[in-house]
Amino acid sequence: MTEVSSLTGRLLVATPALADPNFDRAVVLLLDHDEEGSLGVVLNRPTPVGVADILAPWAALAGEPGVVFQGGPVSLDSALGVAVVPGGMSGEGGIPSVDGSALAGGDGAEPAGAPAAPAADRADVQSGDEPLGWRRVHGAIGLVDLEAPPELLAAVLGSLRIFAGYAGWGPGQLEDELVEGAWYVVESEPGDVSSPDPEQLWRAVLRRQRNELAMVATYPDDPSLN
């Protein structure tokens, strides 16, 4: 099998040529990528559903807009939280099951719960310890155990976003799409997770690139009008 270079923590930005309506102008944060497949969440698909309506205990920690985002077309009845811990650690880590916390009416598997403990302070995080209830994916970005008490993370979270569902690819499937020109692969920034204007994230991510991709940001929504 051809060795797969991990893209975990990077962004997939849909090219204008990508025809799948699930990913039109999508910006996907890859949470896992290896020989067995890929998993990520779409960062720019806010829904009308408030976090308070689904996961009330976490609503106060969710950034604006305080709504649930559609993370992708897979397992829409499950929820996962992606959060940034400022001054976070570098490197990569494992991630909990994406079905670890179910939305109301969902039937995701029970995750391993974090034990009750005082909230970690920033000194603990900066010393390299992962706060209870948060597991690093890449750099300062990590996944939240939504079954854990929110107060475990209230003191350390810089931002939190709740996603319903996720995007998934089988072995080699994402690599095929990359060869076909469906995605641009770019570096992520912690602020991408908490963008207050997610509808503009596709253009914003492309615009900050220091190459020809910056020009793609001007591509019209309807090419026939160009």
TrEMBL record:
Transmembrane portions of the chain: none
Which InterPro entries does the UniProt record give? AlgH-like (IPR003774)
Tell me the Pfam families matching this sequence: DUF179
Q: Which GO terms describe its cellular component?
A: cytosol
Which spans of this chain does the record mark as coiled coil? none
Where is the sequence biased in composition, kind Low complexity?
109-120
Q: Which residues form the signal peptide?
A: none
User: What ranges does the record give for the region Disordered, renumbered to this chain?
Assistant: 96-128
As for family, the record states: Belongs to the UPF0301 (AlgH) family.
Which PANTHER family does the UniProt entry name for this protein?
Answer: UNCHARACTERIZED PROTEIN YQGE (PTHR30327), UPF0301 PROTEIN YQGE (PTHR30327:SF1)
Q: What is this protein called?
A: UPF0301 protein SU9_012550
Identify the species of origin: Streptomyces auratus AGR0001
